Amino acid sequence: MGFSETQEELVLRSWRAMKKDSESIALKVFFRIFEIAPGAKQMFSFLRDSGDVPLENHPKLKSHAVTVFVLACESATQLRKTGDVKVREATLKRLRATHANAGVADAHFEVVKTALLDTIRDAVPEMWSPEMRGAWEEAYDQLAAAIKEEMKKAA
Ligand code: HEM
After folding, report:
1. 48, 128, 142, 149: which has the highest count of C-beta atoms within 10 A?
2. Is the CB of 68 within 6 Å of ligand 1?
3. Total of domains in the chain
4. Cα distances (angstroms) measured from residue 125 to each of 25, 90, 114, 120, 129
5. ipTM of this complex prediction, to 2 decimal places
6. Which pTM was predicted?
7. Which domain holds residue 107?
8. Residue 10 Cβ < 6 Å to ligand 1
9. Which of 6-20, 46-60, 81-95 is least confident?
């Protein structure tokens, strides 16, 4: 089943609405990730080394979540246009290295997905629908699949 223009629009519309608050939304994604999987904190070098600095003061946390959102939006557009997700080669190689080195496993991608979906639902409750959820899931799953595939090559 293809990815429709309507699905792309659901993803892009909700991201447009969230973008102005991207910092706080990005933080929520992380709080949710660490709620579901407290052990994941150990994988982030800048958290490991940071002593007692509060989570919300870590610029790198924000940029991680924003990148996931932005790449998922790009995936939505690619899926609608070509039915396939192709992450730029250079980006993909870097993502493979970072995530493989950090010890990210398949199950973590599910955790991040749940955190992402919960955060979107709470950020734009008036827009949220099963269709919107499905569109984000598909865009994220295809992006995650591309990264996981690349990580397997490295293993
Ligand atoms: C680093 C994107 C999923 C954990 C990064 C970086 C990006 C990124 C752009 C910055 C470094 C680089 O460019 O290589 C993504 C995307 C994901 C995803 C697009 C899913 C579609 C995950 C998952 C985990 C994770 C599931 C595990 C919970 C990490 C860690 C780092 C990292 C630990 C290194 C942070 C550090 O120590 O500096 N990711 N990521 N990522 N990501 Fe992800």
Report:
1. 142
2. yes
3. 1
4. 13, 36, 16, 8, 8
5. 0.95
6. 0.93
7. 5-154
8. no
9. 46-60
